[in-house]
Structure formats: structure tokens, C-alpha cells
Amino acid sequence: MKYAIIGSGVAGIAAIEAIRSIDKAGEISLVGDDPYGFYSRPGLAYYLTGELHDKALFPRTAEDLRKLNFRFINKRVTKILRLEHTLEMTDQSVILYDRLLIAVGAQALPLEVPGANLEGVLKLDHMADAQSILKQARRGRTAVVVGGGITALELAEGLRARGMKVHYLLRGDRYWSNVLDEQESRIVERRLQEEGVTLHYHAEVIEVVGRNGKANGVRLLNGQMLKCDLVAYAIGIRPRLDLAKQSGLAVDRGMLVNEYLQTNDPDICAAGDVAQAYDPMSGRSILDSLWTPARQQGYTAGLNMAGQKTAYIKSPPFNVTRLAGLTTTIIGTVGRGHDDDLVGIARGDSETWRQLPDCMVAQTGFDVHRLRLLVGEKTLLGAIVMGDQKLSLPLEKIISGKMDISSIREKLLMPNSKIGDIVAEFWENRN
Ligand SMILES: Cc1cc2nc3c(=O)[nH]c(=O)nc-3n(C[C@H](O)[C@H](O)[C@H](O)COP(=O)(O)OP(=O)(O)OC[C@H]3O[C@@H](n4cnc5c(N)ncnc54)[C@H](O)[C@@H]3O)c2cc1C
């Protein structure tokens, strides 16, 4: 059996691990255009701040990868010829496959304003992007950060940690308004300001201005000019669908797959950020941009490519991240609506988080430690845990296990109730 995998991210590597758990002899080719191969993309944020060395970004050692016995081809696939079961690369070389996995991820949406192609206008998708941000970031100089969600914040904090003066521009009146509630946004904004980041509300960039091909300022919709040496943006991402479209595979916002991660061609699977997988919570096919689902999808696709019939059961999205230095866990469905600073989904984000059905909200804590629960009829639908993380794992189990919380529902919804204590007691006394 000949397996080909396009994309050396976590979905691609997990697929190889799964194939090798079943088929020791099959030939596996991994084609990836990133010269750094497999590394932690969420870790890039900590690389920017200087908390992680680049060596710490590689989750697998060279020896781990060698044991998986695959061929890494550092090229870009330009065409899939489905009838011939062949991939074509930029240099016109070809690879034959019996089973193919497309795990090409998603790319940053471009900043579409005049001047966006000037030197010094930067995004954060790959290791090479992080390196060029670090190359251009210099103590005492000024950066403008545009966008929303986790990556924009990470850019602001990373540049600040490198000693730059940072202006963070928000189009609306608060940070990440379709996932966080107002108090949560304010906690994050206050901490950013304490770190020395200058926030600008209702600020929309209409042009990046420059000199000699280099960015040296931005013009805002209200006429204001901000001088800067670097513009970093993270306004959302889009699954890379060019190969799927070129080869006539079914797409919507991402590549459409069934519960076995197969596309409409049974010999071709898709997994990770590029795939739009079925979500039993909402009954819809949705996009995630999260490391764990990408890993789980890649692994399940690999098992199926090697001959098993294993369904991918999506659990409620779970992300432990750091927002302005504050550890924050987001589980299940927590928000809804529209965010002025993002076009669609962002990195480290899930569409599920914004599909809130009718439910009640219980919340506690008004400063650094904060807990918000989304209380459904009989189950918890989602939770945000900021600061103290004692309850994040129990809550993940309660939400993903759809545990019946009828016995504590009323108590949770009483004004000023200590919802943290109620959940902790419920968890300790579970059968
Ligand atoms: C800065 C940043 C912060 C993040 N923060 C979080 C977080 O807090 N929590 C979280 O859970 N997730 C986070 N994520 C998202 C997470 O990293 C992704 O969900 C995950 O990496 C997706 O894995 P993947 O394998 O689907 O795709 P990717 O990791 O994107 O890998 C796809 C690979 O395919 C390659 N490729 C594309 N087209 C071709 C082609 N035609 N030929 C050959 N190769 C090709 C790409 O270059 C890439 O190397 C973050 C991501 C970034 C960048």
C-alpha cells in the first residue's frame, strides 16, 4: 500500500502514527512545503516572547520520526490527479498513492488595504514568519497590531516583550467580543495596558503608508496617522482549499468529510484545520482551528486509510491558552455573534464556541479569577475559566460527558451563588 500525506503539521504526523500502528510495511510519503517540518504552532507565541527557545518547539525528536519510517519530501504539491492517483509537485515530479490525506491547514487572511504589501507588514502562520517578526522587532521602536482573537493578542504581547512600543487597534469597543463576555474582555484589556500596550478602540486601518518600500505608519478611518516601524496582523484564517477545488473535491468553508474523515473520493481523506467535520453538538459541519482536534482527526484518518473503520467523534472544543498572561480555558459553547476584528474563524478558535443555543449564564469572580458557566436544561454547555485552573479539567469532563447537572442547576442560577464551590462539590460527589 502506498500512502501519501500532504502537510507536515500535527494532523499529518498523527496520521502517520496511526498508519504505522496498523501497517508496518506500507510506503508512506509526507510532502510538506515547510522546511522546518513538524513543530508546535501554538508554541510560536512563546517563541516570540522569548519564553521558549526554538528547539523546544519540536514535539518529536529526529529519532521518534525516524522510527515512523516515512519519506519526507520538502516540496509543494500543486496538483492532485485523482484518476491517476498521482500528486504533482512544483518541480513537476510526481508521487503515486493508493490512499491520500490532505492536511494542508489554513492560512492567515490577508490585510486588504493599500500598502499591505510593504516590507514590515507581517502575519504569524509559520516558523519563518516568527523569525522575520523577531528580526524586525527592535527595542524602542513602534509596532501596530491589527486583528482579534488569540493570535493578535500574542503578537501584541510578543512585540511588547521584545521592548517595542505597541499600539493594539480594535475596530469595535472590546476585545474578542464573540467569545468573551464584557467583563472577560475588560480583564484582558486591563492586563494588556498594565503590560504597557496602548489600546485604541473603534480604530480601523485604511492604509499602511511607507517609504522606500518599507512600512512606516498606518492611516486610520478617523483620519489619525500612527507612526510605526512594523505592522503585525491576525484578522482570521481560511482553510487552504486550492488543491481540493482543483481536483473537484467537495468544499464548503473547509473540505467536507464524513465521520471517517473521507472526502467525496473514498481514497482521499482530509483532517485538521483544512477539514470541516461533523459536530454532534450543533448537528452541523464546522471548522476548528485547534491543535487537539487536528491531532485526533489526523489519527482517525490514518486508521481509516490503513483499513479500519473508525468514526471521528468530535468532543466539545477545549483550549487552554494564555490571554494577557492569564491562563484561560475555553470549553464547549461560550459565546455568539460577530467580532469586528475578525473575518470568520481565527487561530486557536472553534466555530462551536459561538453557536450558543438558549441557555442561562452563571458567573462568579470579578477580578483575576473568573468562572463563567453556560447552563443548559440538564447539562452544562460551556465554560470559561480564567486564572485559577482547579476546575478546568472537571468541567471538561462534565461538559464532554454531558453529565446530568439537574441536581445543582437551580443553585447555580441563584444570584451570587458560589458556582465554583457548587461545581467542585458536584464533581467530588459524582458516582
Ligand atoms: C500563532 C498560532 C497560535 C495558535 N494558538 C493555538 C492555541 O492556543 N490552541 C490551539 O489549540 N491551537 C492553536 N493554534 C492552531 C493550531 O496550531 C492548529 O489548529 C494546528 O496546527 C492545525 O494543524 P494542521 O496539521 O491541520 O495544519 P498546519 O499545522 O497548518 O500544517 C499544514 C502544513 O501543510 C503545509 N502545506 C500547505 N499547503 C501545502 C502544499 N500544497 N504542499 C505541501 N505542503 C503544504 C503548510 O505549510 C503546513 O506546514 C495556533 C496556531 C498558530 C499559528
Description:
The protein has 431 residues and is of the alpha/beta class. The chain has 11 helices and 28 strands. The strands form 8 sheets. Strands 3-2-1-7-19 form a 5-stranded parallel β-sheet, covered by helices on one side. α1 (10-22) runs parallel beside α8 and α10 (406-413) packs antiparallel against α11. It starts with a strand and ends with a helix. The model has no long low-confidence stretch (mean pLDDT 92).
Brief summary of the model shown:
By secondary structure, the chain is α/β, with parallel strands linked by helices.
Mean pLDDT: 92
Low confidence ranges: none
What is the CA-atom radius of gyration, in angstroms? 22 Å
Structural class assignment: alpha/beta
Approximate strand percentage: 25-35%
Using DSSP, what is the number of strands?
28
Largest sheet: 5 strands, parallel
Binned, the helix content reads 25-40%
Ligand inventory reads:
flavin-adenine dinucleotide
